[in-house]
Structures are given as C-alpha cells and as structure tokens.
Design brief:
- The protein has 212 residues and is α/β, with parallel strands linked by helices.
- Helix content is 46%, strand content 15%.
- The chain has helices at 2-13, 24-37, 51-59, 74-82, 95-103, 115-123, 134-137, 140-146, 165-170, 192-209; strands at residues 15-19, 41-45, 65-69, 88-90, 108-112, 129-131, 154-156, 176-178.
- Helix 2 runs parallel beside helix 10.
C-alpha cells in the first residue's frame, strides 16, 4: 500500500512546492521556509545543484513529503528513489520511468498536454498526471479531459498563481504545483520572504476550499 499512502498524502497536503534552487545551502533555506509556511509536498527538481543530496537530506523529515522533479531518465529516477524520493515528476511521459516507479511502488507524475498522452500514461499505470505547461493549457483543460476520461487524476504545474488557483480546484485538480511564485523576491539573504509567499498561497487555498 506504499504507493497509495503517498498519493493520499499528496492529495491531503494538496499544494506541491516545485523547488529550483541555486545551491545546496540556498535550497535548504528555501525548503525549510516553505515547510514553515505550510506547504508539505516538496518537489526538488534535478535542475537544482546536488538535487540527490537534497532529497536525501529532507527524506527523513516527518513534516515533508519529498519528491524528485525534472526527472528525464530512468537512471535519474532510480537515483532519486534510492535517495528517498517518495514520488517522481517529469515534464514528459517516459514509459521506462513509469515501469521503474511501479516496481518500486512509487507514484510517477509525468507531464502531459494532450488527451493521447494522458491515455498512454494511464495505460502505463500512472495514477496522477501533471498537466504541463498549466499556464498554456488553462484550468478548463482538466474539465475537458475528465469528460471522456473521468477517472483521470490531473495536477497542473506551471502558471498556477493565487489568482487562478480556485479555477484549477473548481475544475477538479487532484493537487496543484506551485513554482517560481514561492521564491518571488528571494535573493539568497532573505529566506523569510519565501515563508511569506508560501503562507499567502496556503491562505488562498484555504479560502478557495471554503468557497470564499
């Protein structure tokens, strides 16, 4: 049941922080402030230096559900899983990565932008599909896909902001990925701004849940 436990945790926490840092210490500060700000799903991208080390560093943090992002190959996925990643995220769908994740009972969230890609990912055993780029496809894409494929679990990433978050939720997003907006105003010396940005997104999410 490991895979389903992780999926339930992602769903319960709902917001996923997509973290792209400039270095190890810099990224640690960002993630610590994101967690303090109220987002517990942490996607550490492989465009970040020492991403594997960062995954291992936070994998034992009971307050975080840590995944690996921008995973472009089976080899990178294997490395991330061995370092403790609880889920794998890619900008594209890769059947070899899907097979590896299924064997390890690890959720795979590949990026898809068409109905064909969504269907192919689902046939490969993918439980949650990343709608990418979300800013280009728009929130209505989820509703359009769920018409013919109602069992598809879809998560937008890219282009999500406080102004359109409620639209994604209303259209049935399984979870929501938030990227650069969390680091807005951060210059390496003021990590507190990351916490403030995170708190603002959490507050917007909570309001949307109440229908405000």
């Amino acid at each position: 049941m490991k895979k389903f436990d992780i999926l339930n945790e992602i769903r319960e926490n709902y917001l996923i922080a997509v973290v792209r840092g400039k270095g190890f210490e810099d990224t640690v500060k960002m993630i610590e402030n994101i967690i303090e700000g109220g987002i517990r799903n942490i996607e550490i991208t492989y465009t970040t230096p020492k991403a594997s080390e960062l995954i291992e560093h936070f994998a034992t943090n009971s307050e975080a559900c840590v995944g690996a992002g921008t995973v472009m190959s089976r080899e990178t996925a294997d490395e991330a899983i061995r370092r403790g990643a609880q889920y794998i995220v890619s900008p594209h769908f890769d059947k070899d990565v899907a097979a590896l994740c299924n064997l390890n009972q690890i959720p795979y969230l590949p990026g898809c932008a068409t109905a064909t890609e969504v269907a192919e990912a689902m046939k490969a055993g993918v439980d949650v599909i990343k709608i990418f780029p979300g800013g280009v496809l728009g929130a209505s894409f989820i509703k359009d896909i769920k018409g013919p494929m109602p069992h598809a679990n879809l998560m937008p990433s890219g282009g999500v902001n406080k102004e359109n978050m409620a639209d994604w939720m209303e259209n049935g997003a399984f979870a929501i990925g938030i990227g650069s907006a969390l680091a807005k105003g951060y210059d390496g010396s003021n990590p507190g701004v990351v916490k403030e940005n995170t708190e603002a997104f959490v507050a917007t999410y909570q309001k949307a849940l109440k229908g405000e």
